[in-house]
């Protein structure tokens, strides 16, 4: 009982509650998350994950992801460096403890972009985030967005669409997500997102004003 009390106290001291974004690949998680950081750069910080996938054109090492080999990633996993990790579409992805701590040390709300396996695993930790599911309006729209993004091979698109069905079902499980946002019209989805996080945004703003 005392252990649980102290670990909760410690996570409260570590800074504001993180926010987990999850949902099918192509639903618009990064798009919404980047808008949030752009509008509130003194409130939110991004948890930079590690991945074994190759960078896409325009992506930057250390900003979008830490791009590593499977050997390096596996060694980090074995050494307990990750809060969570998962295999997704043939590659490893993971949130390092350092990635979360870097953001929390700045007293910012830490934003995590993770798949449904990551959500299940984060739920076993003391992180205590707010869980937001970003969903596409339909499978057809999702497929179009993935194709139009022009970042995936046909094989990768097929793998992502197959996983998307499970991610869409997962969002309907009671009690998993604090908010489920359908990203149809971007501005509407963004407004919904901001409303869902308003209380936390105001808390951080108040803290930074008084310090
Ligand atoms: N509301 C929207 N309307 C139209 N296009 C959108 C909308 N939201 C995002 N997009 C576009 O859809 C594509 C997928 O969005 P994004 O990359 O943000 O998805 P994601 O969920 O982060 O995907 P992944 O999990 O693969 O990283 C992008 O090209 C983006 O510009
Ligand atoms: N469990 C984790 N999932 C992650 C992490 N970082 C990203 N992701 C998820 O992977 C897919 C694919 O991402 P992409 O950039 O290759 O399109 C997407 O659903 C992300 O949410 C992580 O650290 N852990």
Essential attributes:
binds adenosine-5'-triphosphate, Rossmann fold, 8 helices, 211 residues, binds the ligand Nc1nc2c(ncn2[C@@H]2O[C@H](COP(=O)(O)O)[C@@H](O)[C@H]2O)c(=O)[nH]1, 9 strands, 18% strand, alpha/beta, five-stranded parallel beta sheet, four-stranded mixed beta sheet, globular
What does this molecule look like?
By secondary structure, the protein is an alpha/beta fold. It has one domain: P-loop containing nucleotide triphosphate hydrolases (Rossmann fold). It has eight helices and nine strands. A five-stranded parallel beta sheet has the order 2-7-1-8-9, sandwiched between helices. Strands 4-3-6-5 form a four-stranded mixed beta sheet. A hairpin with a 2-residue loop joins strand 5 and strand 6. Helix 6 runs antiparallel to helix 7 (154-170). The protein is globular and about 50 Å long. The chain binds adenosine-5'-triphosphate and the ligand Nc1nc2c(ncn2[C@@H]2O[C@H](COP(=O)(O)O)[C@@H](O)[C@H]2O)c(=O)[nH]1. Adenosine-5'-triphosphate binds next to helix 2, helix 6 and helix 8. GO terms for molecular function: ATP binding; GMP kinase activity. Its main location: cytoplasm. It is an enzyme of class 2 (transferase).
């Amino acid at each position: 009982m005392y252990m649980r009390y102290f670990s909760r106290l410690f996570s409260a001291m570590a800074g504001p509650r993180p926010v987990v974004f999850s949902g099918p690949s192509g639903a618009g998680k990064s798009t919404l998350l980047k808008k949030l950081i752009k509008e509130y750069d003194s409130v939110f910080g991004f948890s930079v994950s590690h991945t074994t996938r190759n960078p896409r054109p325009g992506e930057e090492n250390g900003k979008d992801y830490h791009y590593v080999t499977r050997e390096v990633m596996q060694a980090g996993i074995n050494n307990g460096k990750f809060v969570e990790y998962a295999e997704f579409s043939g590659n490893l992805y993971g949130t390092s403890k350092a990635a979360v701590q870097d953001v929390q040390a700045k007293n910012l709300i830490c934003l995590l972009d993770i798949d449904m396996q990551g959500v299940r695993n984060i739920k076993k930790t003391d992180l205590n985030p707010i869980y937001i599911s970003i969903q596409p309006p339909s499978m057809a729209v999702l497929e179009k967005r993935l194709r139009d993004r022009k970042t995936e091979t046909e094989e990768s698109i097929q793998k992502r669409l197959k996983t998307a069905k499970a991610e869409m079902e997962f969002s309907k499980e009671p009690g998993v997500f604090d908010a489920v946002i359908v990203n149809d019209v971007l501005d509407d989805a963004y407004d919904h997102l901001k409303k869902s996080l308003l209380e936390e945004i105001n808390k951080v703003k108040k803290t930074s004003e008084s310090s």
